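// run 5 | inverse folding | seed 20
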């Protein structure tokens, strides 16, 4: 039922955006912006509705009791004040965090997530993650750039063959 609702909502959003494109030449931009914003908000709300029941939001790390570092990435998944889902990855002191915007999410089976993401406002990627709800952990299985280049395949980093680590859910202050 949820997938039918999601498909219908997407069709409605696409139809609305196509109609806007057809009439954009005749309508001032200020009149179009609120409609586009509401279509994006609907997509964000649908994405949050998929991720939230899986316990996706919160902080994850290889070792929660140690500081972030290149071998101990801290991933913090959140919903922004504007209602947009995303996550950041901290690689440690002196290194810039990576900021990911979640553009879309699909649940594939009981424990897999397929995410369309944008890294640092520019690099689009398709990510598949496995979610182990019993052990409160997640792991990246695939990561593919928009051009098709695979960064992670079958849970291994393409560049060096290293297995992607399991990230465990850290205790949040509210836990």
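// decoded
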């Amino acid at each position: 039922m949820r997938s039918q609702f999601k498909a219908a909502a997407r069709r409605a959003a696409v139809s609305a955006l196509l109609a806007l494109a057809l009439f954009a030449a005749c309508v001032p931009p200020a009149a179009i912006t609120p409609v586009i914003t509401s279509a994006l908000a609907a997509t964000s709300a649908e994405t949050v509705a998929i991720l939230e029941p899986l316990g996706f939001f919160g902080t994850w790390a290889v070792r929660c009791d140690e500081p972030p570092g290149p071998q101990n990435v801290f991933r913090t998944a959140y919903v922004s004040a504007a209602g947009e889902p995303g996550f950041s990855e901290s690689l440690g002191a002196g290194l810039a965090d990576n900021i990911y915007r979640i553009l879309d999410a699909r649940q594939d089976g009981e424990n897999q997530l397929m995410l369309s993401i944008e890294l640092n406002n520019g690099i689009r990627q398709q990510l598949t993650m496995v979610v182990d709800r019993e052990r409160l952990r997640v792991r990246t299985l695939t990561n593919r750039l928009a051009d098709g280049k695979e960064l992670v395949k079958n849970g291994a980093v393409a560049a060096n063959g290293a297995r992607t680590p399991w990230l465990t859910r850290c205790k949040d202050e509210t836990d």
